[in-house]
C-alpha cells in the first residue's frame, strides 16, 4: 500500500511541476463556463439543457482523452 501511495504522490508532484494540473483546470473551466455562454440555444429549457450537456460533456471528454495520451 505504501508503494501505491508513493506512486500517487510522485504523479501529483509531476503534474504540478509540469503545470499540467493548472492548464487542464483552466481549460475545463473555460469549457464548462464559457461554452454555454458562447453557443446560442433556441430559448427553451430543453434546448439549453441539450446544448449544455452535449457540447460541454463532449469537450470535457475530448480534453480528458487528449490528456491521457
Apparent shape = elongated
Roughly what fraction of the amino acids lie in strands? under 5%
Computed CA radius of gyration, to the nearest angstrom: 17 Å
Largest sheet: none
How many alpha or pi helices?
Answer: 3
Q: Give the tally of structural domains.
A: 1
Q: Based on DSSP secondary structure assignment, what is the total number of beta strands?
A: 0
Low-confidence stretches: none
State the secondary-structure class.
mainly alpha
Q: Can I get a quick summary?
A:
The chain has helices spanning 2-17, 20-38, 45-68. The protein has 69 residues and is an all-alpha fold. The protein has one domain (2-68).
Describe the structure in your own words.
The protein has one domain. Helix content is 86%, strand content 0%. By secondary structure, the protein is mostly helical. The model has no long low-confidence stretch (mean pLDDT 86).
Amino acid at each position: 500500500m505504501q508503494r501505491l501511495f508513493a506512486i500517487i504522490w510522485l504523479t501529483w508532484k509531476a503534474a504540478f511541476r509540469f503545470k499540467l494540473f493548472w492548464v487542464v483546470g483552466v481549460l475545463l473551466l473555460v469549457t464548462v463556463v464559457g461554452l454555454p455562454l458562447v453557443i446560442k440555444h433556441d430559448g427553451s429549457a430543453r434546448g439549453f439543457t441539450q446544448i449544455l450537456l452535449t457540447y460541454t460533456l463532449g469537450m470535457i471528454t475530448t480534453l480528458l482523452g487528449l490528456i491521457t495520451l
